[in-house]
Amino acid sequence: MGKSSDLEILELGREERNISMAQMMIQERESVEKIERYTGYALEKLKEISNGIGIPLMK
């Protein structure tokens, strides 16, 4: 396995962790600003995640 493959695996893990964190924060009714700060995701990505779990974003 080459270094690029290792890097890709790390990136996938980071992405999964951030999605999980965003889902949990949405369920806990955290503010969009806080979720953006902790995950690095933009509003559009957070809308996509919130729609996927059926919980609207808090303002």
What distinguishing features does this structure have?
59 residues; mainly alpha; 3 helices; 75% helix; elongated
What report would you give on this structure?
With 59 residues, the chain is mainly α. The protein has one domain. The chain is built from three helices and no strands. Helix 1 (3-27) packs antiparallel against helix 2 and helix 1 (3-27) packs across helix 3 (43-53). The radius of gyration is 13 Å and the shape is elongated.
Shape: elongated
Radius of gyration: 13 Å
Number of DSSP helices?
A: 3
Question: What percentage of residues falls in helices of 4 or more residues?
Answer: over 70%
Q: SS-based structural class?
A: mainly alpha
List segments where confidence is low: pLDDT < 50 over at least 5 consecutive residues: none
Number of domains: 1
What's the end-to-end separation, in Å?
Answer: 44 Å
Largest sheet: none
> Taking all residues together, what is the mean pLDDT?
93
- Strand segment count: 0
Strand content: under 5%
Give the topology string: H per helix, E per strand: HHH
Write the layout of secondary structure elements.
Elements: H1 3-27, H2 32-39, H3 43-53
